[in-house]
Amino acid sequence: MLSVSSVALLLIQASSFFKAGYAASDESSLYGTWSSKSNQVFTGPGFYDPVDELLIEPSLPGLSYSFTEDGWFEEATYQVAGNPKDPTCPEASLIFQHGTYEILSNGTLILTPIAVDGRQLYSNPCDDKGVSTYTRYNQTELFKSFVVEVDAYHGVYKLQLYQHDGSPMQPLYLAYKPPMMLPTQTLNPTEGASNTDSGASATDTQAVNEKRSLRTLVRRSLENRHKTSAVKVHKGFWNSDTFWYLSAGLLGLGSVMFLYS
Question: Region Disordered: which residues (predicted)?
Answer without folding.
Answer: 188-207
